[in-house]
Amino acid sequence: MALFSGLSEKLNHIFSKLTKHGRLTELEIKTAMREVRIALLEADVNISVVKSFVNRVSERAVGQEILKSLSPTQQVIKIVNEELIELMGSANSKLNVAPNPPTVIMMAGLQGAGKTTLVGKLGMLLKKQAKNPCS
After folding, report:
1. How far from 59 is each of 24, 29, 103, CA to CA, in Å?
2. Where are the domains positioned within the chain?
3. How confident is the model over 111-127, as pLDDT tens digits?
4. Does the predicted TM-score (pTM) go above 0.85?
5. 2-88: which CATH architecture?
6. CA–CA gap between residue 75 and residue 91 (Å, rounded)
7. How large is the C-alpha radius of gyration of the chain?
8. Please, how many CA atoms are within 13 Å of residue 60, restricted to the half-sphere of its CB?
């Protein structure tokens, strides 16, 4: 979870620098997408996924009609949000528990990314579902 909060902070910082008036220029979008690319790569996202994501967002953002209810910056944030949802998957998926114990779940991530916290929360969830998680 620390990974996502760090990425979220970086994205908020990137978008806070965009102009709040009129229309975003192609240069502003290009600069923002370069910083988004760097933030995603620092979060250990696969480079091909990053390239594809940035290209899709850039295509949608450049020349996009700005909705009357949103500023240009909010419009870009909306596009990034929609593409992140598409990238991560818009539907929740259930944890596949083996019919015969044990169910083995491997956790991998950077130091400080929240693996231990997530495993604790997962254990509590499984306990509420009448499963027997062991440490």
Report:
1. 14, 10, 43
2. 2-88, 94-135
3. 777 889 989 998 998 88
4. no
5. Up-down Bundle (1.20)
6. 23
7. 19
8. 16
